[in-house]
Amino acid sequence: MTAQLLDQQYVVHLYAPATGPEAPAAYRGLCEIWRGCRLAFQMTEAVEGFDVPQVPPSAAEGVPEEFEGVLALQERPFADSQAVLRKHHDVFNLSVALAPPETRLPKEGEWTWWRDFDRTWNAISARYAPHMLGQARLFLAGVPEADPADASLLGWLATLVPTDATDATDATDAADSTSSTASNTEPPDLLGATLDRGVQLWEPFARPLYTPDRRLLLAVGPGSDARASRWIWSSGGTEIPPLARYLLHAAKLRYEMRVWRRDGQARELNEALDTLSSELIRTGATDSAKAELLRLRSGQALMLLGDLKLLRQTAEIADDNMRRALSEAEQLRAVNPFLRDAADAQEFLELLDDQIAYLDTRTARSASLLPIMPAASAHSVASAAPVDSAGPAAPVNPEAAYQVTDKDTVFVIHGRDERARVATFDLLRAFGLHPVEWDEAVGLLQQPMPFLGRVLREAIPRAKAVVVIMTPDDIVRLHPELAGPSEPGFETGHSMQARPNVLIELGMALAYHPRATLILQVGDHRPIADLGGFNYVRVAEGTAFRERIGKRLSYADCRVSMPPDGAWQTAGDFGPAEGRRPDRP
Hints:
single chain
């Protein structure tokens, strides 16, 4: 059978978010992988014929938000291996193509290039996998004839494809993983697709929709190299090829599936709402504590319901984009792996529909109970909170307001980073807004020692907007005794996180003022699953992030002043954009 193999090549399409809290860390990972390709695969030259730099911008903030196209190109001398970094809409795409030099073609029976390339790729990329949306590894085999019905050919080629021996639900974090040398023991899927004449595609060891790493096998017949390249690499230009574009949207869909799987809030809230509603019906809605808890849970459920609907919309868009990527070859959607992807996507959308329907029913039932609850229960939990030894808190005048000003007020939540707090206040004032100091918020209650939660409950709704400054103040990690076998790097290693009070107060802001809360992120933070769907504004060099803050606040109906030559463009000294890291102050 070895005589049927003429060549082995290896192509990787890696996808990373270009927006959101993970984007800066993901982009830094891409830059490190780019340097790794230069060292490990000797990609030391620019690609002739293209006016594209050999080195990408050093940080994600250096890539304009509206930019779309190629950021960098590099290749090994004699053009047998190349790498290209693109930005496609809201995704960074790093594609790497590797081929052995003709002078080093193996002797018969020694076809190890796939395994060697895969091992090296793991070594330079695995540690950054937790920040990525996903990747697809393509194993290209040059064969005398690519016959989709040749089960013996596929079966033999499948034994040469390196497998990932780690848990399928998460990418490995070990750069020295032994996955490259693992052998395939499960029977391969013999169904494949004809991409073009002489080009056959299989996904012999398919995994569920939510897994981040895909391994595809291509058999390329004689004279079909150009047709294969048009699908998987290039037709002569720098635009993203059809299969890479399809796999990009599939990676986004798989990422959304992983986010959904990690978050079990919907089931918990459904059960809590059912239990509380039943108890209140049984007791005649006289239990004020349970009534207050039902109010809080209902608020949480409404927020989650919105998140689920947004998630479904995102998944539906990804599924539609997968279909559009195959618009020139609609017949491919009727065969694997594309048929299986479409079925998995449909199943995911149906699961989301079911979850949305269940949660919608529970919140409607809870809402029907709220009007019959006793008025005294409306703030029973908050009113019972400790204040000071002088006795219970006095009622707050509902007409109480902040100090008299003709400027719109912005309530600011912050941690220990005084520099970031002062910079934010300076920027808000440059916008013509009035940032609320803590003492001013306390003044609403007119008590010497007010309860913190009550201050926030009264202060947040009275502001026009809320700005939450997320600074990396705490170094955190998961306790080793609680770690699973394949935890991502941010769980097992030290990572940065905002102060607990900031996270708690952020939750209160999202509960009391969800449509006017803006999250400002400084530096890198450990991912927080419950905040994964929120769009942050990240501190960066230059004017662009300041402009984004101003626009977001204007969406909250704040009267923001942003003249073209105004002081707002440089207001606020936030310091280094990367913030603090675990390995340095």
